């Protein structure tokens, strides 16, 4: 009972996660429920992206990362990949103005070189245009997978060693971090996955070492800022111990 009594039901704006990462899942099932094609689900997903991004910025979240297209998604039918890429280009073009109006900076992580030329060009334009915005950073994970990113980091480190710019004994967490595509982004305190699946699916494996995980049954196209709010409240009711004891944490917070 005392636990229930102490549970917070609204957000404490002083203890917001600085970085929230989201695995947007369930577009296909949402479309299927309505006997529509999968691409209809992705279009619905854009509405959820819009509301979540705006809501996160208004709440004071500093970094929001969205898993928009994984390395493994290249294995989907060509028709769906093409539709997703077109949706991405159109959304980026249409929403750059909104990003500017809301002071949101756009960044991307992943194998951007592997994206279709038009997609890459539009993405880079939007990134450059919004580069000086300060309120929130929106990170799109595109053609991204964590194993790919980690292997890229290993290659960069091996190259430094080969060129004698780095000694093997000096390799540490900090150096490894600096070789990841997220080197200028803090680790997410909270990772959300929609659609009732309880998997990480090759997303930010290194960066979520101490993240709180939140799973919701809501399908991504139905996800709105209210759901983000629920996830943050749930996060704020958890005790983050980083390997320490409850007593130590209580003392630190006293
Ligand atoms: C997962 O649902 C969703 C994706 C693979 C794509 C996400 C893309 C969007 C929300 C649209 C564009 C995004 C931006 C940032 C503009 P799924 O297709 O795997 O659904 P299922 O598991 O129900 O089949």
Your description of this structure?
The chain has 9 helices and 6 strands; from the N terminus they run H-E-H-H-E-H-E-H-E-H-H-E-E-H-H. Strands 3-4-2-1-5-6 form a 6-stranded parallel sheet, sandwiched between helices. The radius of gyration is 19 Å and the shape is globular. Helix 2 packs across helix 3 (38-59), helix 3 (38-59) runs parallel beside helix 4 and helix 4 runs parallel beside helix 5. With 254 residues, the chain is of the alpha/beta class. The model has no long low-confidence stretch (mean pLDDT 95). It has a single domain (16-253), classed as Undecaprenyl pyrophosphate synthetase, CATH 3.40.1180.10. It binds farnesyl diphosphate.
List its salient traits.
254 residues; alpha/beta; Undecaprenyl pyrophosphate synthetase; 14% strand; binds farnesyl diphosphate
Shape: globular
Main sheet overview? 6 strands, parallel
Molecules bound to protein: farnesyl diphosphate
Order of strands in the sheet with the most strands? 3-4-2-1-5-6
- Supply the CATH class: Alpha Beta
Helical segment count:
9
In short:
Helix content is 45%, strand content 14%.
Secondary structure: elements and pairs:
Blueprint (H helix, E strand, L loop, with lengths): L1 H5 L12 E5 L3 H7 L4 H22 L3 E8 L7 H24 L2 E6 L7 H13 L6 E9 L1 H17 L10 H6 L11 E4 L18 E4 L9 H12 L9 H8 L1
Parallel strand pairs: 1-2, 1-5, 2-4, 3-4, 5-6
The chain binds farnesyl diphosphate.
Farnesyl diphosphate (FPP) binds next to helix 2, helix 3, strand 2 and helix 4.
């Amino acid at each position: 009972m005392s636990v229930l009594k102490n549970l917070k039901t609204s957000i404490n704006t002083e203890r917001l996660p600085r970085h929230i990462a989201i695995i947007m899942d369930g577009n296909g099932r949402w479309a299927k429920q309505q006997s529509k094609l999968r691409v209809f689900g992705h279009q619905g997903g854009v509405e959820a992206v819009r509301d979540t991004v705006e809501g996160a910025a208004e709440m004071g979240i500093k970094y929001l990362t969205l898993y928009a297209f994984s390395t493994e998604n290249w294995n989907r039918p060509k028709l769906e990949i093409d539709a997703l890429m077109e949706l991405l280009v159109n959304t980026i073009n249409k929403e750059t103005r909104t990003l500017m109006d809301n002071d949101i900076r756009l960044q991307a992580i992943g194998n951007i070189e592997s994206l279709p030329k038009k997609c890459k060009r539009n993405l880079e334009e939007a990134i450059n245009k919004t580069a000086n915005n300060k309120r929130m950073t929106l990170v799109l994970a595109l053609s991204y997978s964590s194993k790919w990113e980690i292997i890229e980091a290993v290659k960069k480190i091996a190259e430094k060693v080969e060129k004698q710019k780095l000694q093997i004994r000096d390799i540490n967490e900090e150096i490894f971090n600096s070789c990841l595509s997220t080197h200028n982004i803090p680790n997410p305190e909270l990772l959300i996955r929609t659609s009732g699946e309880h998997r990480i699916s090759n997303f930010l494996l290194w960066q979520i070492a101490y993240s709180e995980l939140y799973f919701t049954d809501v399908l991504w196209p139905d996800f709105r800022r209210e759901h983000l709010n629920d996830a943050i409240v749930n996060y704020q009711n958890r005790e983050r111990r980083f390997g320490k004891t409850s007593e130590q944490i209580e003392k630190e917070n006293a």
